[in-house]
UniProtKB/TrEMBL annotation, chains A, B:
Protein name per UniProt: HTH-type transcriptional regulator BetI
Coiled-coil segments on the chain, per record: none
GO molecular function: DNA-binding transcription factor activity; transcription cis-regulatory region binding
Residues that span the membrane, as ranges: none
InterPro entries: BetI_C, Homeodomain-like_sf, HTH-type_TetR-like_transc_reg, HTH_TetR, Tet_transcr_reg_TetR-rel_C_sf
Region span, Disordered: 1-21
Keywords assigned: DNA-binding, Repressor, Transcription, Transcription regulation
Residue ranges the UniProt entry marks as DNA-binding: 46-65
Gene3D superfamilies for this protein: Tetracycline Repressor, domain 2
Superkingdom field: Bacteria
Keyword Transmembrane helix: no
Domain HTH tetR-type residue range list: 23-83
Amino acid sequence: MTGSPEDAPEGEVRPKGRYPKGVARRQEILDKAIEVFARRGSQKTSLRAIAQEVGVTHAALTHYFGSLEELLVEVYRESQHKPGPERPLPPDASPAMAMSISAEANREIPGLVQLYSTLVAMALEDNHPIAHSFATERFARLRDDIAEQVEQLQASGHVRADLDPVLVAALVIAASDGLQIQWLLDDGVNHEAALEMLDRLLRGI
Amino acid sequence: MTGSPEDAPEGEVRPKGRYPKGVARRQEILDKAIEVFARRGSQKTSLRAIAQEVGVTHAALTHYFGSLEELLVEVYRESQHKPGPERPLPPDASPAMAMSISAEANREIPGLVQLYSTLVAMALEDNHPIAHSFATERFARLRDDIAEQVEQLQASGHVRADLDPVLVAALVIAASDGLQIQWLLDDGVNHEAALEMLDRLLRGI
């Protein structure tokens, strides 16, 4: 009952991220979990299996992340923050091109695309509030960001002025997500060419 | 190879649905499972839970469907065959409009959209060959059908002639799938308006 302090401070129910040492340990587990996912995708996503691969006890994983759902969300969030190779976006890059570039980064880590699909599927079910918040907030934030970008591109004449920026944003995100899935299942699908075509359509050329 | 000809056509290995009585019972279970899904979505998709709701033993379910994955695929396939309300498609309906109409039918059964997302997420993992075949074949068939429709619409001047029909097909399917997911998570997303916009872009108006 008296676990080592950095692993399970006494009496705390959800102490994650409370003490510097705990924060460091949590981050260490997370980094390892990201590696595991990048290597193998999400085909064996039980907490126990991940704990085993990461080399921590199941109890420690549960202690730091609570549930598989929380760990999955954290792994995805954290992976997205990792700096990718430099891919400078041209100043007149349309939203579809921006999504294409970010999708390209994801495709280098197939496990990440699988993980994202799993999270979205979980989000659509009723009993996964954390995946639901994650997906809902991610889509809302992306729509806002891209809609703003669209307005600027409309002002500079790079996107058709008669299009609703919010609808364009929703369409571009949907197209990028959906094309990525089709490409993963069949690499004959030219994800990039389809987004470039959407790009041209949005520019009105 | 000596099964009754109408029930187990040559080349079918698995004995399920081999005898008329078995076929009827299998269909009965499937119909019940579809009802269960339509009512509750896929939030509790263990075979045991479904068996309980459907009112059959777990052994019987396993006997007729083999695995949860197979049952899910069958439930989705079968639901798609059910005749929906009449929605005549205008002769010059663009591909995006056609997808919008089929998506509208799905939205009336939210459980079906969840089930579809779950199947696609399973398909992206490594250990679900049945979901993988289902999703891969569904996308390939849809792309073929829609690409053919696009060619006809290009010939009649209803879709821009400079677009690659196969890329248009992949884009329209991706947009429809992705927008449906965004709408399910946030009903402020105007799925239909976004597809209508894509429609206009494809027509070049």
